[in-house]
Structure formats: C-alpha cells, structure tokens
Amino acid sequence: MIRLTKHAQEAIDKREIAMAWIERLVTTPDFTRPDPRRPGISRSYKAIDEAGGRILRVAHRPDGNDILVITVHFDRNAKS
Predict the structure, then answer these.
(1) Is residue 80 part of a domain?
(2) Looking at the domain assignment, is residue 79 inside a domain?
(3) pTM of the model
C-alpha cells in the first residue's frame, strides 16, 4: 500500500499529479537512486507519457509493509 505524507498530498493536489502515475512509478520506476541527503530515502523516477514524457520524481521509504511517499514533483533536471 502506498501512503502519503501531508506534504506529498499537498504537492499532488497543487501540481495535479495523478495517483495512478505515482503507483506506476513506485512499482516500475525507470530508475532509482538513494537520496544523497537523507539516509533510508530513495528517489525513483519515471517518464510519464500522459504528461508529455516529463520525468516524475518521488522520494519514498519503506514503512512496514507500506511505502511512504514523502514528496513528488516533475524533475526538470532528470534524464531517463
């Protein structure tokens, strides 16, 4: 199950990011890297066809059997 922090939910609402995109990204990312500033946090990336191929970035960590999404946004600097 994917859970969202308040910050992630606010970002999704403000940026009009579909939850289906986040689910797809978390289950089948194009690539994943550790967050360089926050141990235990991963950054996953995926090109979203419905958003013109823009790269969506999700910072997340395991939380028991769940995945806690900390933040989400389109990353202009990411390369697929």
Answers:
(1) no
(2) no
(3) 0.91
